[in-house]
């Protein structure tokens, strides 16, 4: 089939992404202030996929999840899940140069909240499925499509809810693709598309220090909750976590060395990965645990020492380092501070798998000369929920990006946008990939 025959699919990928952006599906993290945007997205997707009746699941009104199962010719084969989330993080219009919910197309990009996280994937996926329908294609195995709510918070209204309350929708599913991965990286030696094979573990710590409450002129700092907490945060912020090279990290490092054509020093990756441009930071933090203080709350008056101070720390744990992390973190926190945890496990998948080979062939068919590159993300996705069902998860939302495009800066960033040509190419790659299933 000629590229020209695929133009309608490519046009749909762009249009669908823009139309989804125009639905404000902001997830505030507070059920009282999160509207019905996720359900409206589900309804729109349902209308586009009318040839494949789906099932809606709602833990709460306005928080719909849509699941579509496309029957395969050989239903006894393990099924494949392709998933994406419809919710987005908040956007302050006053700080954007465009309306974040207008889905504006200009300067070769689709602009708006969710453009790369991840209404682009939904637009490309739906367009690819519709194109395969027009071609009369029927997959060998069942393909399950899940468009879910609440990924940006904790998934308790989305994928976590489906896994816990409706696991039957994943019957027979052995593998899945979703975020983060698929974006291209360009260096002088060529272009490579990332395939997400691992996610670091997540550990969100709430630190609570207690001390003597009283007048600022009389309470010594050794009894001051703020002083105790700030000292702990300083130790955490300045700690250098060691580079961790397990099997997954070693495979990522080796692939980067082949792409860049030289040996890399794991202890000095920031400089070594500079040729990757804006995406370099997405790779360098994959090799070690990170701990970033994010919130601090204490006191009500300048002249009053509060009896309690609270802070949060966002920790991402290198695979296999959980026990070491807990021991070292406790030493950094020190005595007199209570710690509460919200955690999610690290997940990983093999790079030498048939499904990865399908991704590689799809990339090569659309972008001759390009290759694929294993990738570990520091972010947390719905793969953490799916892993509880034993599903092997990959990140593959393919986008052919311009070399200087600030892809990581678009995630949750101001003026989030995705190149139109990236959507057009990505829809073609997804079509090739799905044709092999």
From TrEMBL:
Family listed: Belongs to the peptidase M20A family.
Pfam families: M20_dimer, Peptidase_M20
Species this protein is from: Leucobacter ruminantium
Protein name: M20/M25/M40 family metallo-hydrolase
UniProt KW keywords: Hydrolase, Metal-binding, Zinc
A GO molecular-function descriptor: hydrolase activity
Limits of the Peptidase M20 dimerisation domain: 197-324
Cofactor(s) for this UniProt protein: Zn(2+)
């Amino acid at each position: 089939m000629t590229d020209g025959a695929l133009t309608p699919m490519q046009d749909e990928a762009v249009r669908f992404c823009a139309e989804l952006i125009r639905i404000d599906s902001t997830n505030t993290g507070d059920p009282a202030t999160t509207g019905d945007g996720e359900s409206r997205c589900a309804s729109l997707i349902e209308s586009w996929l009318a040839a494949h009746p789906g099932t809606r699941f709602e833990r709460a009104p306005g928080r719909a999840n849509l699941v579509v199962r496309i029957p395969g010719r050989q239903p006894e084969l393990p099924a494949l899940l392709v998933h994406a989330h419809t919710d987005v993080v908040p956007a302050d219009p006053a700080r954007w140069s465009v309306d974040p919910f207008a889905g504006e197309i200009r300067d070769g990009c689709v602009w708006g909240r969710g453009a790369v996280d991840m209404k682009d994937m939904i637009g490309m996926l739906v367009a690819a499925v519709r194109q395969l329908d027009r071609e009369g294609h029927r997959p060998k195995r069942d393909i399950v499509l899940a468009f879910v709510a609440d990924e940006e918070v904790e998934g308790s209204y989305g994928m976590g809810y489906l896994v816990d309350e409706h696991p039957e929708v994943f019957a027979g599913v052995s593998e899945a693709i979703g975020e983060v991965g698929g974006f291209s990286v360009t260096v002088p030696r060529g272009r490579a598309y990332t395939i997400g094979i691992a996610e670091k573990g997540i550990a969100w710590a709430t630190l609570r220090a207690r001390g003597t409450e009283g007048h600022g002129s009389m309470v010594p700092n050794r009894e001051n909750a703020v002083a105790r907490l700030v000292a702990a945060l300083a130790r955490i912020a300045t700690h250098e976590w060691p580079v961790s090279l397990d099997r997954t990290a070693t495979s990522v490092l080796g692939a980067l060395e082949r792409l860049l054509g030289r040996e890399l020093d794991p202890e000095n990756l920031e400089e070594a990965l500079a040729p990757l441009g804006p995406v370099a930071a997405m790779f360098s933090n994959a090799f070690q645990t990170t701990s970033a203080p994010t919130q601090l709350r204490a006191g009500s008056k300048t002249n009053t020492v509060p009896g309690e101070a609270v802070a949060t720390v966002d920790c991402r744990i290198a695979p296999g380092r959980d026990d070491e992390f807990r021991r070292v973190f406790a030493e950094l926190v020190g005595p007199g501070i209570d710690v509460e945890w919200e955690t999610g496990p690290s997940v990983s998948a093999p790079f030498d798998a048939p499904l990865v080979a399908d991704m590689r062939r799809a990339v090569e068919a659309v972008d001759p000369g390009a290759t694929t590159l294993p990738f570990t993300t520091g972010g947390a996705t719905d793969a953490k929920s799916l892993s509880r069902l034993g599903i092997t998860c990959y990140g593959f939302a393919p986008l052919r990006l311009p070399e200087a495009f600030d892809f990581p800066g678009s995630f949750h960033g101001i003026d989030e946008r995705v190149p139109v040509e990236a959507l057009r190419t990505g829809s073609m790659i997804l079509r090739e990939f799905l044709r092999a299933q």
